[in-house]
Amino acid sequence: MRIxxxxxxxxxxxxxxxxxxxxxxxxxxNSQPAKIGQIIDEMSDIxxxxxxxxxxxxxxxxxxxxNKPRGIECTASNQYNVGQTVFNxxxxxFIRERxxxxxxxxxxSQGMLILTNxxxxxxxxxxxxxxxxxxxxxxxxKPINQDYIAKMLQGFExxxxxxxxxxxxxxxxxxxxxxxxxxxxQGRKREIRRMIExxxxxxxxxxxxxxxxxxxxxxxxxxxxxxSQEDIDKLFA
Length: 237
Description:
The protein contains six helices and 15 strands. The protein has three domains: 3-53, RNA-binding S4 domain (Structural Genomics Hypothetical 15.5 Kd Protein In mrcA-pckA Intergenic Region, Chain A); 63-129 and 214-235, Alpha-Beta Plaits (2-Layer Sandwich); 133-211, 2-Layer Sandwich (Pseudouridine synthase). Helices cover 20% and strands 29% of the residues.
């Protein structure tokens, strides 16, 4: 088994994150630095990350839906003194599991966040090849016109990346603010905020409300629920 897949199956991290850890020389196999793509024997080889052994233990895949509040970080570490993270909200029955988030939301964004203990599942949900649509409700600090909306659908170049919305719907105003429903299929860092800034406005509030065909409903802010197989199937529908 390749080392990246091993770390993913153990629920330590997604495969792409495993490659980063290996490149940073934080992963060893039998006390030797690991190499990306290295084949290991998960039953006999000793794999460590940051000197901590990672063991292969069969486990049931757990998928949680979290209604993330604003002000909460998507990070696995408090090393930067960020305060509470999404992992502080894990319910007691699951606190011994190591969870990954699938598609981060920045600190000031809120709404739908998927957490899982299965690295392969996280990779499947976030990989561009799955072509999954994510839908956001976005309140703007000041309105933008149809020309800017057309440019967002066409795509902006920013920092060597193409930022592009798949679909944009104009909703009724909230307290005098323009509200847009923005559909994305790619997952660039702060993509919506960067696009709106290109339109000479700013995001006042941003909330992820749907992934695939699974909608965020009947779940209060700050609460988590265990997803059924039917719910999980909707993520990929």
